[in-house]
TrEMBL record:
Keyword Oxidoreductase: yes
Methyltransferase listed as a keyword: no
Native organism: Streptomyces laurentii
Pfam families reported for this sequence: Aldedh
Keyword field: Oxidoreductase
A GO term, aspect molecular function: oxidoreductase activity, acting on the aldehyde or oxo group of donors, NAD or NADP as acceptor
Top-level taxon of origin: Bacteria
InterPro entries: Ald_DH/histidinol_DH, Ald_DH_C, Ald_DH_N, Aldehyde_DH_dom
Family: Belongs to the aldehyde dehydrogenase family.
Name of the protein in its database record: Aldehyde dehydrogenase
Origin organism lineage: Bacteria, Bacillati, Actinomycetota, Actinomycetes, Kitasatosporales
Amino acid sequence: MSPIEALYIGGEWVAPDGGHYAVTDPATEEVVGLAPEASRAQVYAAAEAARAAFATWSRTAPEERAAILDRAATLMARDADAHARLARAESGATTATARGMQVAVAAARFRRYARGALEPVEQALPPQINEAGPMGPSGVVGALAVRRPVGVVACITSYNNPWANPAGKIAPALAMGNTVVVKPAPQDPLSVYAMTRALAEAGVPAGVVNVVTGSAPAVGEAAVDSPEVDMVSFTGSTAVGQAIGAVCGRAMKRQLMELGGKGAALVFEDVDDRGLDAAVRGIGTTFSFYSGQICTAPTRVLAQRPIHDRLVEKLAAYARVLTVGPPAERGTVVGPVISAAHRDRVEGYVALGLKEGARVVAGGERPAGPGLERGFYVAPTLLADCAPGMRVVREEIFGPVVVVVPFDDEEEAVALANDTDYGLIDYVWSGDVARAFRLAGRLRSGGVGINTIGRNMEAPFGGFKRSGIGRDVGSYALHAYSELQAVVWPGG
């Protein structure tokens, strides 16, 4: 029987005021389970429970917080097979992705922030020698900068990774002594309830973690505007982030926003054959990884003209050999996108690209074949002959679609890369590493990958411009979920 979930408020499983809604498997269009529809009053009650728990949890010894987070990681890993099956069913991720990049990464993040709870929060500042004056006699004044928890954090997560994304918010927030109200994406919330059960079994005190869900925008709106919420951590579209930011601005709430992206991959003519193949593999992950539903994807390829045609040919060949199919099948590389509406949106962008003058080099048609009669599948699609002003070049498609724009020299490449509303992660492939590092300094993005799409999970993550506000990952997440307090005292 499909799971029927309840809200988790103040350490209790609570029946939802609004009943339940169906969570659909993007591959089969069958019901995976029923998620609770919270009322605005229940969201407010969750925030009030988090506020009541904050006083005690924020004063809990870091060692105790660390032990709970570590136990939670162990419990998540213990049930990894079941968690991966659930994540695959509700998100459409392939088996390998659900296991390795969703559940395993979530457990690793709880383990990382178990250690993070033990990181020092005080930074000693140089003593200051004050002359006698209106503020008092002469003397030496000492000072500390101390990181304190923000308070109650609303964690509003995206649909593309129902394990790693919530874990990346909940774990560092708890490590710093905050309490949380978690509002998962409506498309795949069931995994967050599985995570919550692991946290409860690990011994998280009542009210420290609260989970509310709903298909209606009102649930997320209540999580943002609750007077008990001190900070909103949001991952999702720029448009929704702007609406959240307006509410937070009026109430002076702290924000951490990881929003849209339209990452540029600059590929220069000096790459050798090995480097070109590496660029193709890196860019090609857009076609497969989460079916392109990832904000860090290098979806906008800027190719220097002498290498342009070879790069397009290799990218097209890469896209054509990727197996599109049911996520549970062993050979599947590309699964479905999250919903019928999103499939239609992605296909609409491909049609728009053709209308704008782009050329479909690979894909462009809805995939067909055994196992694809149902489900929300989109073929990996490569668009060439693109111009900078096209909407397919400027707007985030959030699907397995890559656009290619040619350039002549460095100056044009940098100008094209920066000619965007976004600025999350860009990439540079060049045989001249020194040039690549120099160009990185001119790219207006929160991260730059040089000859790689890999990430260092201790490096700060976040975006420039409309790609977000703030930084997280590693110790930067601990800083994001804390406030700085100055403590000053007179010397002897």
